[in-house]
Structure formats: C-alpha cells, structure tokens
Amino acid sequence: MPRPASQVYTWEPSDRAIAARYGLDPADILRFDTNTSPVAPDFAAEVLAGAMDPPLNEYPDSSYAELTEAAAAYVGVDPSEIVVGAGADEVLDMCAKAFLPAGSAALLPTPTYAMYGVLTSQRGATVEAVRRLGPDERYALDVDALIERLPGAALLWLCAPNNPTGAPEPLVTIERILSAAAATGGPPPVIVIDEAYAEFWHETAVPLRVSYLDLVVIRTLSKAFALPGIRVGYGVAVRPTIERLERVRPPGSISTPSATLAAAALRRPDLARENAAGLSAERE
After folding, report:
1. Most CB within 10 Å of its CB: which of 2, 154, 235, 264?
2. Is residue 209 part of a domain?
3. pTM more than 0.70
C-alpha cells in the first residue's frame, strides 16, 4: 500500500502572499525562484475566449485526442507514443505508480528536483541517492557511480538539463547509461528523463526510446511555452510503455480550457523557441 512521503514538497509562496507579508504591490515582484517566464503568451486570451469542445458544462474528453496529437506532432512521434497529464508532475507520478512497487529502489542523482524523491517515498520505495560531481564539473552526473548502482534498481530518475543546477546531460552520456542499464543481466530499470527544459538545450533523448524500450521522456508546457498555470505535461515512450502508464492515468485530470490552450501552444513551436532564446539571452 502506498505510504505518505517522508518529506512534503513545499511550494513557493505566491506573489500575493509575498506582497502581503512585506507590504508590497504584487505587480512590483519579480521572481527568480520558479524558472517561469515573466509574461504569458499573447495568444492565450484569444484561445480561452473561444468555444470549448466539449463545452464547459460537460466533463473533459478523457482521451485528450487533440492534445495528444499536438504533442506527438511537436516531438515527431506517433500519437500512440504519448501520454498526457496535469503537469509534468502528474506524468512523473504515473511513472512512480506504474514502475515503482513497494520495497523497490529508485536511483536519484542529487541535487535535483525534489519531487522525484517525494514520489518514490509515496510508493514505499527506497531512494538511493548518487551525488553529482562538484561545481568544477558543473554538477555533471557521476556516470561511473551511477552505472555501478544500476543492477537491482527498478527506476532511475534523470533531469536533463538538471534542475536546479542547470547542468546539461549530453546525449552521449545518456546513451552510455542506457547501454549499461540494458546490460545489467536482470530486469532493466525504467529510466525516466525529465526534459522540462528541453527547449533550452539542443539535444533530446526522445529518439532513444526505440533502442531502449524502458525509457520515458517527460516534457512540460510550464517553461519555454510560459504556461505553468494551465498544468499540462506529457510523456513520450514506446507504445507498450505508454499502455502501462495509461492504466494509472487519472481520467479527466486536465481541464478542457487547459487542454485546449496546450494544444494551441504546441501547434506554435516558434513560440517556445523564441521564448527560450530570449530568456537565454537575458540570462547571459
């Protein structure tokens, strides 16, 4: 039976809460802690003002066919290789539910996004932390240490580029890890790669799904698409893996307005590219 997490993920306070605490105007707050865009996409208001299908007096279409097709076209895969969720976090949760039985172990290169550890603990699985290299190596993965721990692990959480260090994971490194995982001699671990910042990096692990069948690549519309408020994410994997994730996907978890706006955004790939380029330029 799933257990409560050993730690609770604490969300950052809202602009309104910060303003109330310090006597500020919310409009005067500029955030650097959530990696979000300073402005929403211009087309969002127009999409939300239009007719919804199904209408808002009906429950969402739980197949999310339009959203699934838009995500598939965006990453260049078949729609049968896509699963959608209410934010990348829900897709991460599906992975934990589908692939992390109680008593199993998940490898977690640290420091990284805290939610991986929370989800692992919720399943009654053990977090096996593998420290990343230090600042002189830009907090890159300690690949040798990671490969040494692969045998017996049920799942490996990876974030590429990594949150919060920003360390990219070159595709050659990912391929080395996948090859080692396939050669463990036992059941290969499921490898979940969170590509929330994919648009800020020039490589993706999506093509590797055809050679390593236990790979799930997760994307979000929260970063480069500047739409964290709609809570939409999706996973990419081969069809048998997607079918396992679909068995644990909650029905109707994405609202119709969110699904509609997400599909519209994914059909505008230039939006993500331009936003990522602009934010990267400002960072430099």
Report:
1. 235
2. yes
3. yes
Domain that holds residue 193: 15-283
Distance CA 148, CA 139 (A): 19
Q: Is residue 180 part of a domain?
A: yes
Given a contact cutoff of 8 angstroms between Cβ atoms, the answer to whether 226 and 39 are in contact is yes
DSSP 168: -
Type of residue at 276: A
Nearest 5°: CA angle at 282, between 198 and 16?
A: 85
Q: Which amino acid is at 75?
A: V
Q: With residue 90 as reference, give the H or E element that holds it.
A: helix 87-99
Q: Alpha-carbon distance 62 to 60, whole Å? A: 6
Q: How far apart are CA 56 and CA 278, in angstroms?
A: 35
In which residue ranges of the chain is pLDDT below 50?
none
Tell me how far CA of residue 107 lies from CA of 88, 154, 156, 181, 281, in angstroms.
19, 8, 5, 12, 34
Residue 37: the pLDDT is 77
pLDDT value at position 5?
Answer: 52
| Tally of structural domains, the chain | 1
CATH number of the domain residue 108 falls in: 3.40.640.10
Note the pLDDT of residue 89.
98
Confidence (pLDDT) at 279: 77
pLDDT tens for residues 1-36?
Answer: 555 555 556 677 888 999 999 999 988 887 777 777
Backbone angles phi, psi at 17, to 5 degrees: -65, -40
Residue type, 77: V
